[in-house]
UniProtKB/TrEMBL annotation:
Belongs to the UDP-glycosyltransferase family. The lineage of its organism: Eukaryota, Metazoa, Ecdysozoa, Arthropoda, Hexapoda. The chain crosses the membrane at residues 537-561. It comes from Aphis glycines. This is UDP-glycosyltransferases domain-containing protein. Keywords: Glycosyltransferase, Membrane, Transferase, Transmembrane, Transmembrane helix. Coiled coil: none annotated.
Length: 600
């Protein structure tokens, strides 16, 4: 369709002196987007007939070239219609979405998934603590309804940097805390009257909705709602695959021999890495199991939770280690990117375009309040920024003391612009994909959770370097900025990574639509789920089979031992009996020559 669009636009633009030529091209292009191909062929002929009718005889001869070109376009369209398979039939579905995590980046990812579905024509009812924030419908009709949960879910944003660096970075704190937070979030959501009504009126809920979309952060508590009302379920994971949740989500655990844990920030290359990574895997599984075991039982989690038909993961192979996954895990990393977001605000655009040396974008995301950084670290950043010619867009809350002249601060910046030359980030996955998509090098300060591993992936790609936030010095920071700006290898590798990131058979939006409708068409698509979900942990690890093999081996070895012992006893008794008899000497006389011959 895109090629035909440009083809028709060329036809219209090539005849600027013809009456209605531009209008004809516009009508044809619009009709292509809202009509089937066969209908378009007839419609286009009609438009051209009207065009020729209003032309003078002298102009009609000159329009013959247009007819030839249009005929070629019609043949192209008709040929495609005859050879290309028609898109799968779909029925507009009613989808229930429950976001239990009150984090902006979590909602941005889910809202992008929902936007793809509403653009396709599906109806969505979404429980969210960020109502009207980047609404999935934005101009797409009334097929989207929000239920505001901000009154019961406290938004996680603007945490003090000291707490993030001291608590969130510790594995012993973050894993049990994530499980505890998830349960608290679910408690708040399940206490809402609207959700209780969905649970109580399960039959009506099943008749009203076709699918449930939710996020598993550290607990699968919303999956009990899907099980209670009998709805197929789709998980959206706003981070790379959650390794400590992976066995319960898809039935398989990643291999710690080569796949780094989500919370292990280094590549797995040597023995010490495999040892540490395996310890993190075991610790994460054990801590989550214990946290779930000791959690207070809620009325909603009686019975087994439903398992997802499809899992949409905010990942891509350029930032995710290669691992074995079942077919119902779909990578849609970068779905939140809006490449058609229009012009930048005037003040930001002027600030960027009037910087001859380029611009640096600096943010630590929505969770950490940049203004809460220790004063000596803020001063380090400011002093270095004063020494460089580039301008800086710095996401900073409130007023900044002693702000450098080349710095613009704000709570949020749309910054997609070719003059942005460097991205200073904490390594959140959404920002990582923005940098990858734009082909911009990254200077990273990983803080917690998946951020060290995200930045390690960019370092492996040769487009990033990382530093420790609490120990940063002016000399280190300045050297890092100059290295990334002036060493063209980083930009070259960033552009290579961007090319790989964009080279995929479907856009993330198309993948979401296809696989969601696949689940709807195939009644939950249970055949995509791994049979490993039905196994216990010892069955999955083949401990029962190994036990049988070991017991069988030991039993066989025991029987062999008993047999040797028995025959040894017989032989010993026989020799003793010979020794005690008068025939013993005769036996020796007979045996001795035979033994001598054997020796010779």
């Amino acid at each position: 369709n895109v090629s035909v669009h440009h083809y028709i636009r060329y036809i219209a633009a090539s005849l600027p002196r013809f009456p209605c030529a531009e209008d004809c091209g516009a009508i044809i292009v619009k009709s292509l987007s809202r009509r089937t191909r066969s209908q378009y062929i007839n419609h286009c002929d009609g438009v051209l007939s009207d065009l020729i009718a209003v032309m003078s005889p002298n102009h009609r001869r000159r329009v013959l070239d247009v007819l030839v070109l249009c005929s070629a376009a019609m043949a192209l369209i008709a040929g495609r219609a005859a050879t290309s398979p028609s898109p799968p039939h779909f029925r507009a579905a009613n989808i229930l979405a429950v976001e239990t995590v009150p984090g902006r980046s979590h909602w941005n990812f889910m809202s992008a998934v929902l936007r793809a579905l509403t653009d396709r024509g599906h109806s969505v009812v979404a429980f969210t603590s960020y109502p009207s924030q980047q609404s999935p419908t934005s101009g797409h009709g009334g097929n989207y309804t929000e239920v505001d949960t901000s009154a019961v879910l406290r938004r996680h944003a603007g945490e003090r940097a000291s707490r993030v660096l001291s608590d969130y970075s510790r594995l012993s704190y973050i894993v049990p805390s994530v499980v505890r937070w998830s349960r608290e979030f679910c408690d708040a959501v399940y206490d809402m009257e609207q959700v209780r009504a969905l649970m109580v009126n399960g039959t009506d809920t099943a008749a009203r909705f076709d699918l449930l979309v939710t996020e598993p952060l550290g607990s699968e508590c919303v999956a009990h709602l899907a099980a209670a009302v009998g709805l197929p379920m789709v998980y959206v994971v706003p981070t790379p695959m959650i390794t400590y949740m992976q066995p319960s989500i898809v039935g398989h655990s990643a291999n710690p021999a080569y796949v780094p844990h989500l919370l292990y920030g280094s590549a797995v290359r040597a023995f010490r890495h495999r040892l540490a990574n395996t310890a993190v895997y075991a610790y994460g599984r054990l801590v989550r199991w214990y946290a779930e075991l000791t959690a207070r039982r809620r009325p909603y989690d009686v019975g087994a939770p439903a398992k997802p038909s499809v899992v949409f993961v905010n990942s891509h192979h350029v930032t995710e280690p290669t691992m074995l996954l079942p077919p119902n895990v779909v990578h849609v990393g970068g779905i939140h990117l809006d490449r058609a977001n229009g012009a930048l605000p005037t003040n930001i655009q002027e600030f960027i375009e009037n910087s001859p040396h380029g611009v640096i974008y600096f943010t630590f995301g929505s969770v950490v309040a940049m203004s809460s950084l220790p004063d000596h670290i803020q001063d380090t950043f400011k002093n270095v920024f004063r020494q460089i010619p580039q301008r800086i867009l710095w996401k900073f809350e409130g007023e900044m003391k002693d702000k450098p002249n080349n710095v613009m601060t704000g709570n949020w910046f749309p910054q997609l612009h070719p003059n942005v030359k460097l991205f200073i980030s904490h390594g959140g996955i959404s920002g990582v994909y923005e940098a990858v998509d734009a082909g911009v090098p990254v200077l990273g300060f990983p803080l917690y959770y998946d951020q060290p591993r995200n930045l390690q992936s960019l370092m492996d790609a040769g487009m990033a370097i990382t530093m420790e936030l609490l120990s940063i010095t002016e000399q280190q920071f300045l050297h890092g900025i100059k290295e990334l700006l002036h060493n063209k290898n980083y930009t070259k590798n960033a552009l290579i990574t961007a090319e790989r990131f964009k080279d995929r058979p479907m856009t993330p939006q198309e993948s979401v639509v296809y696989w969601t409708e696949y689940v709807l068409r195939h009644k939950g698509a249970h055949h995509l789920k791994s049979e490993a979900l039905n196994l216990t942990w010892y069955q999955y690890m083949l401990l029962d089979v190994i036990f049988v093999f070991v017991v069988s081996f030991l039993a066989i070895m025991y029987l062999i031992y008993k047999m040797f012992k028995y025959f040894y006893s017989l032989a010993t008794n026989y020799l003793i009996s010979l020794h005690s008899s008068e025939n013993f000497n005769t036996f020796i006389e007979i045996v001795t020559p035979v033994l001598d011959d054997l020796v010779d």
